[in-house]
Amino acid sequence: METDINITVLKADLDALKINADQFFLVTMSMIIFFMQCGFAFLECGAVRSKNTTNILIKNMLDAFVSGVSYWAVGYAFAFGPGDWPGGFFLGRRFWFSESLPTGLLSHWYFHFVFAATAATIVSGAVAERCEFMAYFVYSFVITGFVYPIVTHWAWSPDGWLAVGVDGVAYKDFAGSGVVHLLGGTAALVGAIFLGPRIGRFDKETGESHNIPGHSVPLAALGGFILMFGFFAFNGGSQASISVAGDGDAVALAVANTVISGSFSAFTAMIFMRLVKRNPANWSLLVTINGALTGMVAICSGCNVFYPWGAATVGIIAGLTYLFWSWLIETVKVDDPLDAVAVHAGGGLWGIIATPILGQDGIVFGPANIEAWKGLGINIAGGAAIIGWTGLICAIMFGLLKLFRVLRVDPEIELKGLDIPKHGEPSYPREAWGDGWGTDLENNIQLPMNNMNGSVENIDHIRKRKLDNGQAVYMVSRDIEDGKYSDHLNPGYESHEIVESSAM
Fold this sequence. Notes:
The protein is an alpha+beta fold. It contains 15 helices and eight strands.
């Protein structure tokens, strides 16, 4: 009898350990995915001009906070509320504000919250440098609280119509090529269309495009590295458990395929651009980063079912897909500063098509396999539904914002930059990046001055000058020519007379 009791206790402990392990796995993967917000922030701030850096950073930070409110309030209920009602194939209707949500599902909520935040962040890159701050709040809340959760219900809730499928063949999208990335890319495209291009992006008369470079390639590269790191958890964590036999293999396969697809896509985009683009032909870092990200987006859908050679194939085509979509978006005069549409919509669409073709038991392994062809059909239908649903809701939303003139900033603010008028916090204040040769020695505060000239007797000395307000300023003189010295510092004050000098 005592032996039976011990076995029962051990079994209960083992079951609890499995549950705890699964929850810990989900929470840990979610934390890494949350760090992708930092990657998006760095990538986007590096790709915009310095005058808009604070603006893009606060939007990326608030994506997480807006999603935290909207997904807790209504999003999770739409996505995973029970479908035990006539409309259950379309959306859920329980767990509003986490009401009646079991504690054991909070790890599941957290995992899908970071997915929702990712979908919203995709949009911010495409509408960068000209979108009104209040418009950002609106679209971020609508996407994370309504648009994305309902698509999630279709594909990942057991009651959703895509999850149920046709004749037992369901929509396959393991880690969100369609549910997250195609949705985010579609919303980004609609937003960019309604906003219109940035001033100066396209010539009004000839239609010729003019590149508007970002202010920091290193920041963009750092963001790219962080996103690549996050994709390993994004795809591997989508297994959602680690306690069942085969879970470890599935996670390892997903992570390995992510590396392979991203690598082949990066090389394909970089080399193809180098061969095709002339005058000049360059090895582009930014193209390489976006190529890698497109490959990782494309592999999301079937990273758990591709053989490694299949992942390489997906990556090669993903690299070409990125270049094609990037060219197409520019050709139709849509301004997408981050190539978000090409990376996420283009890569996501290719991913959900590739899964039933190149995945295990896919069409390439048996062209006569009817089930595989049905899988291709349901995935295409799912992709079309995601594009249609997202495009419709976002067109209404962005259209209303434009109608009420709250979508785009005024041209004057756009030209001068959004950081100061919208936030009062320039990313690179003038007094912080001077060369140190024009300082208030008593207060150690750099003062903005302009070209100052005066007669000198010695090369190295300290000059004392007096501004209009009578404040004394000390300058270390340099650049002596014909008895004159010149110093070039931050602009702001006109030249003033030197009132006294002393030898060093």
